[in-house]
Amino acid sequence: MSHGTVRVGRQDPAVLRITLSRPERGNTVDSALIADLHEALDGAEKSDACRLVVLDSPGQVFCNGLDMAESAAEFPAASDHDGDPGRGAAGSAFFGLLRRLTETPRLTLACVDGRVTGGGVGLAAACDLVHTTERGVFSLPEALWGLLPCSVLPFLVRRTGFRTAGSMTLTTLPLTAREAVDRGLADELSPDAAPLVRRLLSRLTKVDARMIGEAKQYLSALHPVTAETERRAVTEFARLAAAPGVREGMARFAAEGRYPWER
Amino acid sequence: MSHGTVRVGRQDPAVLRITLSRPERGNTVDSALIADLHEALDGAEKSDACRLVVLDSPGQVFCNGLDMAESAAEFPAASDHDGDPGRGAAGSAFFGLLRRLTETPRLTLACVDGRVTGGGVGLAAACDLVHTTERGVFSLPEALWGLLPCSVLPFLVRRTGFRTAGSMTLTTLPLTAREAVDRGLADELSPDAAPLVRRLLSRLTKVDARMIGEAKQYLSALHPVTAETERRAVTEFARLAAAPGVREGMARFAAEGRYPWER
Amino acid sequence: MSHGTVRVGRQDPAVLRITLSRPERGNTVDSALIADLHEALDGAEKSDACRLVVLDSPGQVFCNGLDMAESAAEFPAASDHDGDPGRGAAGSAFFGLLRRLTETPRLTLACVDGRVTGGGVGLAAACDLVHTTERGVFSLPEALWGLLPCSVLPFLVRRTGFRTAGSMTLTTLPLTAREAVDRGLADELSPDAAPLVRRLLSRLTKVDARMIGEAKQYLSALHPVTAETERRAVTEFARLAAAPGVREGMARFAAEGRYPWER
Fold first, then answer.
1. Which of C207, C210, C223, C225 is the best mutation test for A, with the most CBs of A within 10 A?
2. How far is A56 from chain B (nearest CA, A)?
3. Residue C206: which of A144, A161, A240 has the nearest Cβ?
4. Residue A3's pLDDT band (boundaries 50, 70, 90)?
């Protein structure tokens, strides 16, 4: 794609595979990745044959969440740029991506084979289905940074219910792949997602293409993620990011790789 | 009952057993079955001694969902009868039956020992408890017909949460009995429902009869299935059924037993 | 604390341990216990170092629910004091305690090692996390008394979803510790809660203190327990308690230890 953050594959016309391909940056979510994912989804939506979008990543990291370097630049210290109208743009773009994943008229399947952190949990939770191998590890460490998974939570609560979304946020402790399945964050744990993909295609290729979008729209209205929820997610994230020390923690991590709690 | 679609048994005054008894038609839901179920529930509600309504079916099929022959007749091709005020009557009657199951002031227990498909999943999900044997298989194949389980989903989402209701709808893949329990569609998996019935009666016979209705009313307000949800379910189902080919698919299946995807 | 219903311990400055300490009364919830729990939470909130509040109880009973003696006195027979403005005060105070547990800016952990009954399930469900040993047994027997767990249910539905909250209320049957974990009422089953406490502290001591409150506030808005829900809980409980025989059942149990169904 345009920014080189993902590779797109189409061995089968019914499947568009989007592979997160910036392992050296932990497949972190920045504006380039968001743009590339939208472009890939555009391709899936333009293809009448496409029924299934697979989102995966080789290697040890599925997605490490928001890109700290970009986020630190996006949210300048409150004292410098208070009231900057650009503030929150990244949060808004990320929420929009999650919403698009839930609304795109294709079945979306996240295939996890490594660490899924922060915003990465949002990418997975916003997909219709989540497959994980034993190597899947899911965590929401935002509170350790003085942040919260504001955009992730509306989609995670919808998927896992309140309890698990809450305990992941509050404790910041990771879930193993087995725990993720037991708590509804993932749907299937097996060494390989390929059999699941085949099982899905055996059905999806018999379904009229427009039905996937119809179903997602009807379902979504039964547990809507409202514009008010979106507004609040973006505002709260910007507010938290503006607190003293938060931006500095992100910037230092981006520059030196040190975590905020390593004073 | 009047239309012979169910048998009603009362060995124990505290239990009314409704047995779906039209196996040759897969216990499909048509206006006759809906009328018979209402009549049976009338009987349960008239009996002060009755605390528990058991809904079961012998044989391999619990319920195959909506009756295709009646549905095809109910939803004429859009070109023929556009705006027919009768359109949607069946959807409305089915939703009303599901609502009644959730509101009747008796404990309702679905005992599943075979296939539960489409609208049949609604019958089970609308009951307070679901027992299943290893033979239970639960699926929502509606999308394969160009339809959606519009009336089923509000009750299924309430029971299983959004994730499982969504994945069953989108993938059309069946859940095994074990999966149904793990995902909250069923409450107990064992070879025989009789011990559960005894356990329930050991408590229910000590409870003042009016409390079951009080409890269901109070609970229902904590997760209401609103009139707006009902209206949308009925309207959407009628709209989908009016799409080109859908009625024809149902009619052909009713006449020839061929599925829509067997072109 | 002032009324001697709980002991408060602080071996670690990051942990405030509240131990329910009136086993001879089954740690029942009355105005004294509610006042003591508020006082203990005041202490936790005043301490900047405190991150975790542990609520536990030695012995066979975690909490037997509302105190029957006080409740019988609180809800006089309808004929005696109809319209008494004091009616419902206990229900309101209990709901307020549950709400406070969900809102206090500390992580709250219930450690269950015995029976948890009625209102006791509310105390556990209102905590952010619930640990249980094999001895944990959870039940909502209110319907047997002509009552409903009105204040418990909004918090229980949020934690376990509708299905389990409903079946516990309707059947009054207990859940084992294993079942409580499978259904999301408890989060972890192990012989000892100490390793979980250590795991939690390894994270919480790295988190800026204010983040716990921020997280709980943000989460709460995604599944709010509204003032209207509270009003309804209190009103309904008072209405049920005023029904003929209910108060008498509580008073007789308080005086003679006989259950209402032992006529």
1. C207
2. 19
3. A144
4. very high
Closest alpha carbon to A34 in A164, A137, A123, A148 = A123
Q: A–C: how many Cβ contacts below 8 A?
A: 70
Q: In the 8-state DSSP scheme, what is residue A17?
A: E
Angle between helix axes B152-160 and B162-171 (nearest 10 degrees) is 130
d(CA C22, CA C4): 8
Cα–Cα dist A241/A247, whole Å: 6
Q: What pLDDT score was predicted for residue C201? A: 98
What is the phi-psi region of residue C145: left when phi exceeds 0, alpha when psi lies from -120 to 50, beta otherwise?
Answer: alpha
Encode B35-103 in three state secondary structure: HHHHHHHHHHHHCCCCCEEEEECCCCEEECCECHHHHHHHCCCHHHHCCCCCCCHHHHHHHHHHHHHHH
How far is residue C93's CA from residue C81's CA, in Å, rounded to a whole number?
20
Query: Strand ranges (DSSP E) for A44-174?
Result: 52-56, 61-63, 107-112, 115-117, 129-132, 137-139
**What percentage of chain A has pLDDT greater than the value 90?**
86
Of A52-61, B40-49, B64-73, C115-124, least confident by mean pLDDT is: B64-73
Contact A170 C215 (CB under 8 A): yes
CB C117 within 8 A of CB C141: yes
Residue C84 has pLDDT above 70, yes or no: no
Candidates B223, A229, B90; CA nearest to C158 is B223
Q: What is d(CA B7, CA A60) in angstroms, rounded to the nearest whole number? A: 58
- Average pLDDT of every residue of chain A: 94
Cβ burial of C69 (10 Å; 0-12, 13-18, 19+) is middle
State whether A223 and B157 contact (CB < 8 Å).
yes
Q: How far apart are CA C245 and CA C259, in angstroms?
A: 12
Chains contacting C (3+ CB pairs below 8 angstroms): A, B
Beta carbons of C220 and C103 less than 8 angstroms apart? yes
What is the number of other CB atoms lying within 10 angstroms of the CB of residue B232? 16
Domain residue extents for chain B: 6-192+207-262
The string of pLDDT tens digits covering residues B7-31 is 999 989 999 999 999 999 999 999 9
Distance from CA of B109 to the nearest CA of C (A): 11
Which amino acid does the sequence have at A189? L
Alpha-carbon gap: B254 to the closest alpha carbon of chain A (Å): 19
> Helix, strand or coil for residue C221?
helix
- CA A53/CA A57 separation, integer angstroms: 13
What sign has the CA pseudo-torsion B74, B80, B86, B91?
A: positive
Q: Which of B129, B206, B215 sits opposite C148 (nearest CB)?
A: B215
Q: For A165, which residue in chain C has the nearest alpha carbon?
A: C219
Say which amino acid occupies C61.
V
> What is the ipTM for the molecules in this complex?
0.95
Nearest to A170 by CA among C13, C182, C214, C225: C214
Residue B200 phi, psi dihedral angles, 5° rounding: -65, -45
Instruction: State the DSSP string of B216-242.
Output: HHHHHHHS---HHHHHHHHHHHHHHHT
In CATH terms, the fold of domain C6-192+207-262 is 2-enoyl-CoA Hydratase; Chain A, domain 1 (3.90.226)
All residues of chain B having their beta carbon less than 8 Å from the beta carbon of residue C162 are: 158-159, 219, 222-223
Give 3-state DSSP helix, strand, coil % of chain A, rounded to 5.
50, 15, 35
CB C126 within 8 A of CB C114: no
pLDDT digits (tens, 9 = 90+) for C9-55: 998 999 999 999 999 999 999 999 999 999 999 999 999 999 999 99
Is C80 at the interface with chain A, CB within 8 A?
no
With H, G, I as helix, E, B as strand and everything else as coil, classify residue C225: coil
